[in-house]
Amino acid sequence: VIHINEGDSVELNAQDVLSDIDFAKVPNYADVVPALKSKPFFVPWLYSGVSIIYNKDKVPNPPKSYEELWDKKWAGRIGLTNQLYFNYIMMAGLIKGGNVTNTEQGKERLIQLKELTQPRIYAAHQQLGAGLVNGEVDIAVNYKARGLQWANDGAPLAIQYPSEGAIAVMFGAALPKRAPSPDLAYIYFNAMLDRKAMAGLAGASFYAPANAKAELTDELRAKVDFTAAQAAALKFPDYAHVAKNTAEWLEWWKKNIAR
Questions:
Q1: Is the Cβ–Cβ distance between 6 and 172 less than 8 Å?
Q2: Which of 39, 53, 96, 115 could bridge to 140 as Cys pair (CB 3.0-4.6 Å)?
Q3: pTM across the whole model
Q4: Interval 10-38: pLDDT, tens
Q5: How far is CA 171 from CA 60, 205, 208, in A?
């Protein structure tokens, strides 16, 4: 078994690394959130969405949408991370009625965001979280789960779900074609999706569980999961489109945004 994110699973499958999974051998897969069942070679485990995370002591009226970040009043107050460069390109393409493959226009809009707000760019999630805590920035665009993790550590943070619908991120597992013991892999996949195990994972990571029947308390589910309307509005990336363009996007990001 290999643990990967959804995007990596698409690329690995294209390189003929992964086997299709016989989901009949994974009984708990029947309880997986239907929207997450998109790949025959990928077992979803947990998921989240790219949200607006803000310091509630400093931002009483946070942006309600991705689009509202494009405002001079946020100059010097927004933090981004190099790790999510492709999500930001999709985010910018999504506004004004766009979609996650509207990425050429997304790049143009990110340049506009840079001109308007001069966002601070951090190397990784951890540095961005530290920037929120120490007051370098007041708003971050990152996974909802990351914001909850930082808030759990004591930071005065809150999460705003963007009105356009959050860009989804999903993590899970797959079966390599050269796996030495496929039968054991199926036992692992099923245990991975166990209702009780899923609840423990959600409580420890603050990601929403892939198993819709995970035994979460009402309080924990309200915190880490999405409402029915939010879940329906999640925007799942077209990872075939991402795979074709990600190398060019990264080079563009380094030259035009990160420096």
A1: yes
A2: 53
A3: 0.95
A4: 999 999 999 999 999 999 999 999 999 99
A5: 32, 12, 10
